[in-house]
Amino acid sequence: MPQTALILGASGLTGSHLLNMLLESPSFSHVRSLVRKPSGISHPKLEEIIVDFQNMEQYKQAIGRGDVIFSCIGTTLKKVKGDKQLYKQIDFDIPVNAARFGIEAGYKQFVLISAHLANAQSMIFYNRLKGETEDIIQTFPFESIHIFRPSFLIGERKERRWLELTFGELMVYLSPLLPDASKPIEVSMVAKAMMNVAIKGKNGNHIYPNEQIKNLAR
What we know:
The chain is an alpha/beta fold.
């Protein structure tokens, strides 16, 4: 039966690709996108809800009922002007609260995009926060939890970041010399893999490193 999907972070690099794929897939009959501001996207299957993610009652109501939650939410220290607490509110609190509300609402699957070096014990703030998010998400009793750990994402961003563009070009150039776990990966492949695992719905908790994601996208 076609599923109802909820997506967080649909305006981001991965989320925007995933949203388009979900809307075009016959495996999903309804797509609920929670956003901070209107996207301007219109589609018969799309339900877009403006949410204040700090308002827990509003957030809980917006989650609604469905089958699978896709979390593509994320920010950068530059966007939050170096405020690590605000960074945590976005990258940790939003997906964790979605998992909590999702379980209460009867969702069966949770699909999370994390990071290549996610580790709750890391000395690096970004990697540690991603690892802590993974650990908490996996405590919720979903039938299926799918965690993706891609390396550097290649794709056209809405905002041009010269440092990422330069680093991305370097990563592509060095790709043949890098181990599979560190090779850059097309964001469209990550989005396709996320959708595919949700369609298959394999029970249990699963973590997919960079080298497995390409196979899952086929």
